[in-house]
Design goal:
The structure is a homodimer. The first copy, chain A, has about 160 residues and is mainly α. Chain A has a domain at about 50-160: Arc Repressor Mutant, subunit A (Orthogonal Bundle), CATH 1.10.10. Chain A has six helices and two strands; from the N terminus they run ααααββαα. The first copy, chain A, has a two-stranded antiparallel sheet. In chain A, a hairpin with a 7-residue loop joins β1 and β2 (about 105-110). The mean pLDDT of chain A is about 90. The structure holds a DNA duplex (30 and 30 nucleotides).
DNA sequence: AATAACAGTTGACTAAATCCACCATATTGG
DNA sequence: CCAATATGGTGGATTTAGTCAACTGTTATT
């Protein structure tokens, strides 16, 4: 096949992607943009600051997490993390506790309210994703996840 | 398999993703973030405004394109497109020409210099991607593109 | 001819992200 | 033990990205 961008027929009236269509990064960005826009508009009512959702989720899954570790995982600057945790605390979804062993660190913990809030958000996310993912068979979905994981692992090794 | 997030063993010291790991959107974002950061740092020397590269590429692939059509395709506001085309023109990579048939429209065209610049950028992008994609077999790569296209098509139908 | 729709432009505004300097605590090496 | 250095966290300044609303000129509708 000469042009992989033709794997799926372009809808009529659509633009020619040119060489851009040969790159996975482009398709990745396209899909991801659309997905995050859908999620954003589905959660527009609650003021959901960028990165807040994934941060809370990571805190819940890793009790005692430090803000630095959190920063690294979500790929944002430390100062942004401060703002995020500030808001998580103000909303009562998480708390900072001074670490006993290292008094520089803030050990982060999700509250019960935070966990409940998370459940709600996960429900919405699941709905948004399903609207797109029902196109894929369970096997394809599993494969997709695996491919993405292998790519991510490779990407991390790159800039070591 | 109970937890698809375990398709690839997590590297030691890595955080527990929790329920977040069940969602493709998360993996998508992760990989995409990393890729675009790599590309950004590889092109840091040339001041490469966001969206400029893909815009130029689309113009080159669709001579006579209007700014509105371009806006829709890259998913940005019309006003952003104006700024992008401004810079493309200032740098001599593209030109605006009044459409003969509809004098409201600006027919966009890439210059020879623009095409040359594109070649350069595509080369860099290819390099950045290869660093990650060499993990995947050609068959897997093709499949990945196809899955992403199906997802994108579905996402577009959603908010019609 | 009046009105509405559309392409493009501008400027104001909001939010996201990076950068840098700084404080408190820990760790290391002499 | 002390000095130097590294680390976790915070605040503020600045840059940048993205959204919105108003306005101009052109075309389409009736």
């Amino acid at each position: 096949m000469k042009n992989p961008s033709r794997a799926v027929a372009p809808r009529p009236g659509a633009l020619n992607l040119g060489r851009l269509g040969e790159f996975v990064g482009f398709r990745l960005r396209r899909v991801q943009n659309q997905l995050s826009k859908d999620f954003a508009s589905a959660t527009a009512d609650r003021g959901l600051r960028a990165g807040l959702f994934s941060s809370l989720s990571l805190i819940a899954a890793n009790p005692g997490l430090s803000q630095n570790e959190l920063s690294r995982e979500i790929g944002l600057d430390k100062s942004v993390t401060v703002a995020i945790v500030d808001e998580l605390e103000r909303s009562g979804w998480a708390v900072r506790e001074r670490s006993e062993t290292d008094r520089r660190r803030h050990a982060l913990h999700a509250t019960a309210a935070g966990e409940a809030y998370l459940e709600e958000l996960f429900g919405i996310l699941e709905q948004t994703e399903n609207a797109v993912l029902h196109q894929l068979s369970p096997a394809e979905l599993l494969l997709l996840s695996e491919l993405l994981d292998r790519m991510y692992a490779a990407a991390l090794h790159e800039d070591s």
